[in-house]
Design brief:
This protein has eleven helices and eleven strands. By secondary structure, it is an alpha/beta fold. Helix 2 packs across helix 6. It starts with a strand and ends with a helix. It binds magnesium ion (3 copies).
């Protein structure tokens, strides 16, 4: 077991998961907690852009934890999205902005959940409450995470708190959210070097509901057709995931970050659940367009969880 308290976000980490782990590390140290930000998967290109911009090193990769290991979770709480071995570990704190699902602990803990657009916005408030300085590095980690999770404040998950935080963080960092944010988001849309298996796992989240198991995976793009052109190989990779992980449904969401629409490809034995969720038939390519839909958390997962009941 490691002495340090390990801080991490969800598997297939996104910019919020990586940045909020680093932001939380500083807050934990401020409380004299010997903590280390780590990660549960590969750093994606969008997050890579941020770390490279700041010349901050990637957190260390971990794959499982031992019994009794002390943990702080950011940007997630669901077991299916967390570290292997967590049930026997000791969760000291959770800072999150997702639904709470199958989360049980043996001991009291610090649990901070708010329905903001980004975990980093919660941490922004905590820094201010504690009077802890937000320097340029921490400020850039915060603004990057918020821009990523809210798609430059355009997602329906974005709240007034996220907007206010970005305004203040622009002053602190000297960055223009629009300019810096678009470059950062664009860096994340480059899928050219990824295999189809990597593409469908870049931002995949597993959900368990009513004995059904499904994965919703999402990629950002500036051109849906570009990604959809790879449909056949992507479907092949999706079929493999379905049989390997015994999934009922695999939903691959291609999100146009410029026009804020999504196209989904759906495979699996229970794909009628998705048709029911959106009251719309899949076309001959197992796909449908979802106008104005960009948020898995608010506009896709709840509808499917509901339809699965
Ligand atoms: Mg996240
Ligand atoms: Mg988040
Ligand atoms: Mg996300």
């Amino acid at each position: 077991m490691e002495d340090k308290v390990l801080i991490f976000g969800h598997k297939n980490p996104d910019t919020d998961s990586i940045c909020s782990s680093l932001i939380m590390e500083k807050l934990a140290k401020h409380h004299n907690v010997d903590a280390e930000a780590v990660r549960l998967g590969t750093v994606n290109k969008e997050t890579g852009y941020v770390l490279n911009y700041l010349k901050v090193e990637e957190p260390r990769l971990i794959e499982k934890v031992e019994k009794g290991q002390k943990l702080i979770l950011v940007d997630h709480n669901e077991a299916a999205q967390s570290i292997d071995g967590r049930d026997d570990a000791k969760v000291l704190a959770v800072i999150d902005h997702h639904r709470i699902a199958d989360f049980i602990t043996n001991e009291p803990l610090y649990y901070l959940a708010k329905p903001y657009g980004c975990t980093a916005t919660l941490l922004f408030e905590e820094y201010k409450k504690e009077g802890l300085e937000i320097d340029k590095v921490i400020g850039t980690l915060m603004i990057s995470a918020i821009i990523s999770d809210t798609l430059l404040l355009k997602s329906p998950t974005c709240t007034q708190k996220d907007i206010e935080a970005v305004k203040e963080l622009e002053d602190i960092t000297g960055l223009k959210a629009d300019e810096y944010g678009l470059e950062m988001l664009k860096a994340g849309t480059d899928l050219s070097t990824y295999s189809s298996e990597e593409v469908i796992n870049l931002d995949a989240k597993e959900f368990n509901a009513d004995s059904k198991k499904f994965v919703i995976s999402q990629v950002n793009t500036a051109d849906i057709d570009d990604v959809f052109a790879r449909r056949e190989e992507l479907e092949f990779a999706m079929e493999k995931e379905i049989s390997d992980k015994k999934l009922n449904i695999f939903i691959f969401v291609i999100t146009d970050i410029i026009n804020t629409n999504s196209k989904i490809i759906v495979l699996g034995s229970d794909k009628d659940i998705v048709e029911k969720a959106f009251n719309k038939k899949l076309d001959e390519f197992d796909s449908m367009i979802l106008e104005g839909v960009v948020s898995r958390k608010k506009q896709i997962a709840p509808q499917i969880l509901d339809a699965a009941k």
